[in-house]
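Record type: monomer structure entry
Structure origin: computed from sequence
Chain ID: A
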Amino acid sequence: MLPRLTLRRLLEGHHVSCRALGVRLLGSHHNHQREWSGQQQQTRHKQQVLATLAGVGAGIALWMKYNHQTAAAKLETADETQKYGVYQNGLPEYTLEDVSKHATIKDRVWVSFGSGVYDITDFIAKHPGGDKILLGAGGSVEPFWALYAVHKNPHVLDLFEQYRIGNLAAQDVGESVKNMDDPYANEPRRHITLKPSSKQPFNAEPPLSLLVDNLITPNELFYVRNHLPVPDIDASTYELELFDEESQKEKTLTLKDIKKYPKQTITATVMCAGNRRSEMIKVKPVKGLSWGQAAVGNATWSGARLCDVLKDMGIEDGKTSAVHVQFEGLDTDPTSMPYGGSIPIEKALDPHGDVILAYEMNGEPIPRDHGYPVRVIVPGVVGARNVKWLGRIIVSKDESNAHWQQNDYKGFAPNVDWDTVDFKKSPAIQELPVISAICEPLEGETVKVKNGKIKIRGYAWSGGGRKIVRVDVSSDEGKNWQAADALESDKARHPRAWGWTIWTAEVPVPKGKSKVQLCVKAVDSQYNTQPENFENIWNLRGVLSNAYHRVNINLAK
């Protein structure tokens, strides 16, 4: 691995423009083939360093992600954003060639957007995403913003306009996107009931009232978490690359090869680390999509056990010095760098860990939105490590250096803010804590009281295969509690309780009350339970939001 360069060294010593890096825009996401020669491995490491250090493309995405509060979830129209990046009288005019001469700190870092030219040099040091802010230096941000439609949000564009220094010459306006394919032109169709928190990339959850109608979540209603455009992969030409850094062994498997391994089927819940973030936001703003309580789903997954595949490469417990297993997807950013994540080697090699290379979801080929043709399912672990559209597996001493492993999906103390955060000081989220939610009735709903009671239901789940042993419910703001009447879950043997529990309860309501607050908390097999409030677990990314779920309802006789 090449040593990590500093931002200043990169800026002062190199001209990092889109053209210099050979940025490939994402018009098509067909399965891309990669070779593993030593020279190409070194080239790839260099690209990773540049991608980590670069990016007004990926970087502006991070700026967008970390600088608005709940606005990332707001879907803006062209009419609302058309005032930005337009020609402004009284400002000097620059050509794209002029802009290209400003790609280092020494020369000042310029970028263009629409008809505007911006000097973002003074913003670089303030960038919450760290040094991932140089990819568009000396060029246009528009090719990258095409990947992240949420950039076109007034809150962010107002901030961006503060760095406006001039107008782009009329003949150059639109040149950067003239021949660019729409990276989202070939997205899959989605069920109309899914509620988007962002459209490009697409992220959505089902209505909460439908979530617990079935123990197994239908494919069409399973929440969708995409970080980049959905690749369109031909299963007949699909290949999965495997590489063991210790032995330098490499292997390529087709989908047909993967299906030759014994087929393992498990029921497992997959949940986004940001599930229930919308509740944490009420304490203090956080950065990220404003997920409700339905960024979670439970499905049966079928595929080859990862430990079987690795064993064929001679990688077994006690026979390797590797510490991590890295996963890379076939969804890529503007530098052709893939989405990635990693898990500890112990989880990957444990035959009872049930990590599988899944090609079926609920008995059908995995839908495109969920990783077709192959995704890794790491049961009991945060959804971010369940990498979709799996293209490469690397057995390594090192954790994945992907942004989503190193600089995201981590928890921090409530006092840490974007001025003081150091992502190196916090481990990447793996197993998730115990959580529960009320799905019926909904917030603000009017519920009929029958025999002095009302019926409520919801889900509960705990990471690491810990079984839900009890769900406690309250109808008086948590003053008094009772156990839920029924718990429904997959019949897998303990301790491999990878799937969620659907619970139902009838609770008495206080006499004479027209409004009550319902509360729920779950207890897992290690007797972990949920914290009482969000104040104590607030964190700047709004992850791990597992405080008591509270729902305020009206009562009708």
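Annotation 1: Confidence is low (pLDDT under 50) at residues 1-79, 128-132.
Annotation 2: The first strand starts at residue 93 and ends at 94.
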